[in-house]
Amino acid sequence: MKEKGFTLIELMIAISIFSVFSIFLYNMFSVQVKESFNFKDNINTQYNLNKAMTMITASLRENSYKDSFDYESLDSLGLIYNKNTKTLSDKYGRKSTGIDEVTIKNDLNEAGVLQVTVSSYGFTSDTAINVDK
């Protein structure tokens, strides 16, 4: 008489197939979670770069009416950059974090144009500002 049911070998094969499939799904899920966190970090970095750029350009425009100002010094623009905490803040209390480097230099090709570059975690944002009166 033949009994109905699964043999031990059939059960082991089914469990091993299920295990391989489960491991594959887990790996796919963990990759998606990591990508999601990386995307969020990239968005935050770009937000901070844009915020820092806005603060710098506003300060440059505010100070460009003066007869002379030191555009390469952030202090003379009312900005404070702390390299230890990577924080850029202005006199209005606005703050941008995660900023690695801020560079303001005169564009040699055009008079009255300043080249502003801000970098953070491998991202760079730059713009040109006309401060000619």
Summarize the structure in words.
The protein has 133 residues and is an alpha+beta fold. The chain has one domain. It contains one helix and six strands. It has one helix spanning 8-63; strands at residues 79-82, 87-90, 95-97, 101-106, 113-120, 123-130. The strands form two sheets. Strands 1-2-3 form a three-stranded antiparallel β-sheet, with helices on one face. Strands 4-5-6 form a three-stranded antiparallel β-sheet, covered by helices on one side. The longest helix has 56 residues, at 8-63. The chain is rod-shaped. The protein starts with 7 loop residues before the first helix and ends with a strand.
Features:
133 residues; alpha+beta; three-stranded antiparallel β-sheet; 1 helix; rod-shaped
Unreliable stretches covering 5 or more consecutive residues:
none
The amount of beta strand, in percent, is 15-25%
Task: State the end-to-end distance.
Answer: 103 Å
What is the global morphology? rod-shaped
Structural class: alpha+beta
Overall tally of structural domains = 1
Concise structural overview:
This protein is α+β, with helices and mostly antiparallel strands and 133 residues long.
List the topology elements.
Blueprint: H1 8-63, E1 79-82, E2 87-90, E3 95-97, E4 101-106, E5 113-120, E6 123-130
